[in-house]
Specification:
The chain is of the alpha+beta class. It contains 13 helices and 18 strands. The chain has two domains: 110 residues, OB fold (Dihydrolipoamide Acetyltransferase, E2P) (Beta Barrel); 290 residues, Bira Bifunctional Protein, Domain 2 (BirA Bifunctional Protein, domain 2). The strands form four sheets. The chain has an eight-stranded mixed sheet with strand order 6-12-13-18-17-16-15-14. Strands 1-2-3-5-4 form a five-stranded mixed barrel. Helix 4 crosses helix 13 and helix 6 packs across helix 8. The longest helix has 23 residues.
Length: 466
């Protein structure tokens, strides 16, 4: 039953009050008429998966006044007596004494009828899809995971940091930023044939952030342990079930952490979140286990109880090369591991989460710390069965000269990152961090196939509705 009603029932039972009067408010999921002169209404207020049964006598004046409008989707307030239910499927029900109609829903036009709808169709009506069982369950699990993320870091003394959404720095150096401007696109100011951004709102070219990491490092170098949790953006033209143009990232940054510390924290983090959601979203997780992925609860339990495998990138490449598998993407030292490679390692070789570390320098961003071999950097990725990469992190380069040299090698202008270099110039310290895509976490935990179904309003190429 909805949480608000459940709490009311608990209070009434504690007071031992019989036939107590309650008010149930919510949306009608179903209406079933009985030949005995009454109707059964299933009401749900969205606070949990299960609805609450209301018994409405047809002789009730307030029922007669609204009966023709009590369809799926209508919103009502029902006053009545809370009694033990004689039917199956629920312990309690309300025998109504008054029904007030807040808002009707046309039975012929309301898109959400009592049947299964495809997720593709539901994306077209994103303003109504939260009323479905699946999307309601997704959002409650998403909410719990968000709560758990803050709990994990707050309990460990991390400070929550709000980093800018608008920035002039491209953290990943890939150029996939959404530009932010107030310039008139039809009358761009020019200087030597190029757009003159000095006349723009910020006086320079700016975009939506792809990561809060660089700003997070600033505060880690003063406050030791911080984390960011906010929206990030990638102008990547990718129409897959794993990519969004707007998504949320969790990015902790820790002073005095090396790569081993970073990997330890990432493992503890994932286990904490999965254990917490199974304990606090039992009804919704049972729903996902029955309707979406019948193995999801066992998968999460296995992750919580196992010790993650840790393997050097070179050893991972060796395992893939001798696997005999027909991969779509070829494997050789220096390549970026694809999802098929990551899943092979986590699902077939180790059959549990895997952390791959010490990646080739040339395929990783400029800020990762160079190893003594000068060919690899202290980077790590956490791979999960059924998904692949869930976390990417590294020990950051804390040597000024090495960092400057790497930026030049990657054709970046050090002067544009003068403030970032100052962190190495004044009191540099070893530090590490990682990033977790929140929607990928929600997708994994719920077993949902498409990442567009685990965010309230998906932003993808050619799609920015609602």
């Amino acid at each position: 039953m909805p949480k608000k009603i459940r709490d009311k029932v608990k209070d009434l039972l504690n007071s031992k009050e019989e036939n107590a009067s309650v008010i149930v408010k919510g949306w009608v999921r179903t209406k079933r008429d009985s030949k005995g002169g009454f109707s059964f209404l299933e009401i749900n207020d969205g606070s949990c998966l299960a609805g609450f049964q209301v018994v409405a006598d047809h002789t009730l004046p307030s029922y007669q006044a609204v009966a023709s409008q009590l369809h799926t989707g209508s919103c009502v307030a029902v006053t009545g007596k809370l009694v033990a239910s004689q039917g199956k499927g629920q312990q309690w029900e309300v025998h109504s004494s008054e029904i007030e109609l807040y808002g009707s829903a046309d039975a012929e036009k309301y898109p959400l009828q009592k049947k299964r709808h495809s997720f593709e169709f539901l994306r077209e009506i994103a303003h109504l899809r939260p009323r479905t069982n699946t999307l309601g369950a997704v959002m409650r699990v998403r909410n719990r995971l968000s709560h758990s993320i803050h709990n994990f870091f707050q309990d460990r003394g991390f400070l929550y940091l709000n980093t800018p959404v608008i920035t002039a720095s491209d953290c990943e150096g890939a150029g996939e930023m959404f530009q932010v401007t107030t310039l008139d696109m039809d009358r761009l100011p020019l200087n030597n044939g190029k757009t003159d951004y000095s006349q723009d709102f910020f006086g320079k070219r700016t975009g939506l952030t792809v990561s809060g990491q660089l700003e997070g490092e600033i505060y880690a170098m003063a406050l030791s342990d911080v984390y960011t949790f906010g929206p990030t953006f990638r102008a990547e033209n990718s129409n897959t079930s794993r990519h969004l143009a707007e998504f949320w990232m969790v990015e902790p940054e820790m002073a005095f952490y090396d790569l081993d510390d970073d990997m330890d924290l990432a493992e503890q983090f994932l286990k904490f979140l999965m254990k917490d959601v199974m304990e606090n979203c039992q009804q919704d997780m049972e729903f996902f286990n029955q309707r979406i992925d019948k193995t999801i609860l066992q998968t999460l339990t296995d992750i919580v109880e196992c010790e993650f495998e840790r393997i050097h990138y070179s050893d991972a490449i060796h395992l893939l090369e001798k696997s005999g598998e027909s991969f779509v993407y070829s494997v050789e030292w220096g390549c970026n591991l694809q999802s098929e490679h990551e899943r092979y390692l986590s699902e077939k070789v180790f059959k549990k989460p895997v952390i791959i570390y010490n990646y080739p320098e040339e395929i990783k961003p400029f800020y990762m710390k160079l190893n003594e071999d000068k060919e690899t950097v202290r980077a790590m990725d956490v791979l999960l069965p059924k998904l692949g990469e869930i976390i990417g992190g590294s020990q950051r380069e804390d040597d000024l000269d090495k960092l400057t040299a790497r930026m030049k090698e990657k054709e970046m202008d050090p002067e544009e990152y003068w403030w970032y270099l100052d962190l190495r110039r004044y009191g540099s310290a070893p530090h590490s961090g990682f990033g977790l895509g929140f929607e990928r976490l929600v997708q994994f935990v719920t077993g949902m196939e498409n990442i567009r179904d685990v965010i309230p309003f998906p932003r993808t190429p050619k799609h920015a509705e609602f």
